[in-house]
Model the fold of this input.
Amino acid sequence: MTAQPPAHSPRPAQPAPLRASDDEREAVVEQLRDAAAEGRIDLAELDARLERALTSRTRAELDAVTADLPSPSPADSLPPLVVKGGMTGATRGPGRWEVPGRVIAHGGVGGVTLDFSRVESRLAEVVVEAYGDTSGVTIVIPDGWTADVSGMDPGTGGLKDETTSARLPRTPLIRLTGSGGMGGVVIRHPNRRERRKLESNPS
Done:
């Protein structure tokens, strides 16, 4: 009796490629712009890679666009920072502190100040979720950083954006969301007094 050859096991089905999101495409766009600013790719290659990134449908296609570039800062993996004003108020900064990808500020009764003026961040974007509550939230960002306040609800206290649109390379975009509440939210660059302190003590 002739022995039958062993039956071949069917190959396991390959998982479908994961679709890329708009946020993931935007993060790659920022990574490419940073790479061009650092001289890792020239402008012609930047244009070509931007087109590939914006037309990528899956994560695998998107990953291939930046496979030979440094990974984004590990600060992306930090947990969100929550700052609550409570009854007496709270301040983060103006000293140096590690900036995560998301910061949540509740003004409470005492108010909150987030001062980024002495920090350095290689993140492409930092989301600041601010709630003015009763006494408001003030956000101070260095010259050269820019802000997108289109996702912010001004509430009854209002939103005051005193930042400029001139963004320097390798600086994060502050994407402001949340609500002004009764106290309002202010985002600005350092004022004259703060600038004098920065100049006299830059460290």
User: Anything to note?
Assistant: The mean pLDDT is 88.
